[in-house]
Amino acid sequence: MKKPRLAWAITGSGHYIEECIAFLLTLQDVDIYISQAGEEVLKMYGIALDDIRAKFPVYRDKSASCPPVGHFYKGYYHTFVMAPTTSNTIAKCVLGIADSLVTNLYSQAGKCKVPSIVYPCDVAPAMETTAPGGKVMVYPRKIDLHSTELLRSFEYTTVVDSAEQLFATVTERLATLA
User: How many domains does the chain have?
Assistant: First the structure.
């Protein structure tokens, strides 16, 4: 078996997505998983999927059974990252719903005791986020904040609150594996 890799999922959140992709492109040994909404958001932000595909294998959400999740059972991944992550994906993960590529990856990572690092788009009652036209203020709903808080208690899961914290946590995780 090859050296274990990092699995990184992109959902339909634009929350600091440009910064997340810029950081992602500095890494090595990464497989990218992208939801259909993630593909749409990349286009809205002018990020070319081909630029990502030029550096990493990209798996798209195109099948009902999500065959690539089997990689977790073979020890192919050492860490799973979801960043940025929509409130919809967070809610599904909290409820144990694994009906898409990304939610299935999170579920299987946990079942295989593979650590997950999650960057939700909703982490505070009032926050600045990125939209295709620039920065905007958003006011996440109580239910979205509650789901984020619940996810913090899940085993093998680290929830981060900012892009900077995401980069530091991923970097620290990679350093422990080196």
Answer: 1
